[in-house]
Amino acid sequence: MYYNYSNQLQLPGIRNIKYDYISAKTAMPGQKVVYVGMINGGPGYGSVGSLIEIRGKKAIVEIKPFSGIEPKIWHIPYYLLGSIKNAA
Fold it and tell me: Among 33, 2, 30, 31, which residue's Cα sits nearest to residue 16?
């Protein structure tokens, strides 16, 4: 299954980015993931981070927003994460 948001900017010659679902069974610590949620106060859409810990319904993810800013630890449900290996 794939995330496919139609609210992304459409450019000629560039297709929509699709991310594989992540679950507790498929995730591994150290894996790179992308945040695909849009929640106020949360990380920005498309932020990339590393999985630190796998839990039942959520993952502990370290996301570094910009260079020079310290990374933050987020507790994110799996349905708001996508696999980065098939992105782009």
Answer: 2
DSSP 3-state assignment of 10?
coil
85's tokens: 């290996």
Q: Which DSSP symbol is given to 52? A: E
| Confidence at 83, pLDDT banded by 50, 70, 90 | confident
Round the CA-based radius of gyration of the chain to a whole number and report it. 13
What's the pTM? 0.72
CATH number assigned to the domain with residue range 2-7+20-83, chosen from the 4 options 3.10.450, 2.30.30, 2.60.40, 2.40.160: 2.30.30
Residue of 56, 53, 60 lying closest to 75 (CA atoms): 60
What are the tens digits of pLDDT across the range 11-63?
Answer: 565 556 677 888 899 889 999 999 988 888 888 888 899 999 999 899 999 99
